[in-house]
Amino acid sequence: MIITVHHYLVLSILLFTIGAIGVVTRRNALIIFMSIELMLNAVNIAFLAFARWNLLIEGKMIVLFVLAVAAAEAAVGLGIVISIYRNRQTVYVDEMRLLKG
Amino acid sequence: MFEAILFYSLAAVAVISALLVVTRVNPISSALMLVVCFMATAGVFAILGAAFIAILQILLYAGAIMVLFIFVIMLIGTDPADLKRRQMTFAKILGAAAAVYLAIVLGLAAWRPPFIAAPMAGDAFLSPATIGKQLVTTYLLPFEILSVLLLIAIVGAVVLAKKKI
Which residues pair with A92 in a beta bridge? Predict the structure, then answer.
């Protein structure tokens, strides 16, 4: 029973899909953010699996950059959530329908 | 054999906690489950020979980002009575079905031979020193741009969250 790169890819696909389901089905903006972090994490697994099987250091470097960009994205995103909550007193995205026709 | 047991147990923890993240109504439970998921993923990173990334994952995600999330949840104060109940709509079911279809297509595309075990990794691949050297030689420009991006993100977050500037 050997673990091949395919096993890691399937794990990555599963986590990515669960994150995508979270983004399309949840209404709480905070949980949508958490699902996006989940998807970024799934992509990191795929990068590291390919790096390990091809013995390339580039995969690790890209994961490092993804981690840093995810941190920046989370900070700005949560700033937006706080700002929306202050103006609208809600974090549910279905109540933000000012532009909806 | 040992690697297989480790991989399957970590993968099971990661997938189950990820499912709990997207199904809990209370965001605090979701955030705590996400910490569990990130810990399991850090374990997967470690068995992929990226111990440095695994430690960074725990420090950055489980340490910094999740504290930020829980801080925001506490700040906006979620009274359990105010939480909306789950509801099924046609659009949600369609979206979830499309995501599952995406997973099946990607899985079928990825599951192709050759099925080979990982090649032996040398010290240069495993050691964090290589990452450090690459960061200040080949990846110097992206690294510097990244530091500027983080500065912009910090200033932007402060401006967005502040009442009066």
Answer: A28
Q: Return the closest-CA partner of residue B19 out of A23, A26, A27, A15.
A: A15
pLDDT in tens, B113-122: 888 887 888 8
Which letter does DSSP use for residue B49 in this model? T
Across the interface, do A34 and B14 touch by the CB < 8 Å criterion?
Answer: no
Q: Do A15 and B18 touch (CB under 8 A)?
A: yes
- Distance, in Å, from the CA atom of A38 to the CA atom of A43, rounded to the nearest integer, reads 9
B110 vs A10, A37, A79: nearest CB: A10
The boundaries of the domain holding residue B136 are: 125-165
| Mean local confidence (pLDDT), B50-78 | 89
Confidence at B165, pLDDT banded by 50, 70, 90: low
Say if B14 is an interface residue toward chain A (CB within 8 Å). yes
Fold (CATH) for A5-91:
Helix Hairpins (1.10.287)
Asked if the interface predicted TM-score (ipTM) of this complex is over 0.95, the answer is no
Cα angle, residue A51 at apex, residues B15 and B143 outer, rounded to 5°: 100
Q: What is the CATH number of the domain that holds B50?
A: 1.20.120.1200
Residue range B13-26: average pLDDT?
A: 93
Rounded Cα gap, residues A57 and A41, in angstroms: 18
- For residues B85 and B26, is the Cβ–Cβ distance under 8 A? no
Asked if residue B100 is part of any domain, the answer here is: no
Q: Do A75 and B37 touch (CB under 8 A)?
A: no
pLDDT of residue B135 exceeding 80, the answer is yes
pLDDT < 70 positions in chain A = 101
C-alpha distances in Å from residue B75, one per residue of A82, B31, B161: 8, 14, 12
Write the CB contacts of B59 (distance below 8 Å, at least 6 apart in sequence).
none
Tokens encoding B65: 């980002």
